[in-house]
Amino acid sequence: MKKIILIGVNATSAKYVPQALRSAGFEPVFLADPDAFTGRSAHSLRDCACLPVNIQDRSAVLRALADHPSVTEGAFAVTGLYDEKFPLIAEIAATYDLHGPEPVAVRLAAKDEVAALIPEFSPPTVRFTGAEAARLAVDPAALGPVPDGYVLKPAEQAGGRGATRLPRGARPADVRDALAASSLPQDPTRSWVLQADIRGPLFSLEGYVSDGRIVFIDFSQRGRIAWTEVSNLLPADRRLPRDAQERCKAAVTALVERSGFGQGYFHCEFLLQDGQPYLIDANAGRLGGGAVVEQLALSHGLDPVEILAHVLTLGLPAAGTSPEPAYRPLGSGRATLSYYYGLEGGGRITSVSVPEGGRCFHTRVVPDGGRVGPVGTGDSAWIGMLTGFADDVTRDIEGVVVHTPDGPRPAAWVAPS
Question: Which intervals hold domain ATP-grasp (predicted)?
Answer without folding.
Answer: 115-313
